[in-house]
Inverse folding.
């Protein structure tokens, strides 16, 4: 059993990660700004934010994994990027692993091709969030640290508007967007969470990004 702190535990990805972790018998410290996560067996709700350095240090010392499922930008301005150094420092001091719920925008559409965010089809409304998340990944890759982090990019279609179902059947990839035979790139919240908790239980991507899709 692992102790997993989920930042953004009441959000779409964070909620699914919490549910999957509990399904497998892990203990979850569920963090959101109001502490409104459901109090149920295996869950400890905590009010707070990732930008509270003292809280992050405390939770890193209590946890095996810090799962970061928060937006990378707020009002169009980077939020998560500036917290990467303090997050890595807390994880190093506390001996915790970091798992980041990433974005799809930084994935290449083909091997050696452009990033999804740089294609003409990428929606303008999502560029601030996607661009900020891409910079988070760059910051993690460029950090001089021994912290064991991983970054999980979902498929292009991922979110509450396309919830899908829990199937347990999906593919993993690296830096290239995965699409099905019809050209659709999609993953349900539940199956994304399976892939992320699988990585917690059986680490295969150390200081690396991977992607999950059908």
């Amino acid at each position: 059993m692992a102790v997993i702190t989920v930042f953004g535990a009441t959000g779409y990805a964070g909620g699914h990660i919490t549910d999957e972790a509990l399904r497998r018998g892990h203990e979850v410290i569920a963090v959101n700004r109001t502490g409104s996560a459901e109090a149920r067996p295996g869950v400890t709700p905590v009010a707070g934010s990732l930008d509270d350095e003292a809280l992050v240090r405390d939770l890193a010392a209590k946890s095996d994994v810090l799962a970061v499922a928060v937006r990378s930008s707020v009002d169009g301005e980077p939020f998560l990027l500036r917290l990467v150094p303090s997050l890595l420092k807390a994880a190093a001091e506390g001996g915790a692993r970091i798992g980041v719920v990433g974005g799809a925008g930084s994935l290449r559409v083909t091997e050696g091709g452009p990033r999804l965010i740089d294609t003409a089809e990428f929606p303008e409304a999502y560029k601030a969030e996607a661009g900020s998340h891409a910079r988070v990944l760059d910051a993690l890759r460029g950090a001089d640290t021994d912290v064991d982090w991983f970054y999980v990019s979902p498929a292009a279609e991922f979110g509450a508007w396309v919830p899908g179902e829990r199937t347990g059947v999906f593919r993993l990839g690296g830096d290239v967007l995965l699409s099905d035979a019809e050209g659709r790139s999609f993953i349900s919240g539940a199956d994304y969470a399976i892939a992320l908790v699988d990585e917690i239980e059986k680490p295969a991507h150390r200081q690396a990004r991977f992607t999950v899709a059908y």
Observations:
- The two ends are 28 Å apart (CA to CA).
- Residues 3-213 form a domain with the Rossmann fold fold (CATH 3.40.50.720).
- The chain has one domain: 3-213.
- The first helix runs from residue 12 to 23.
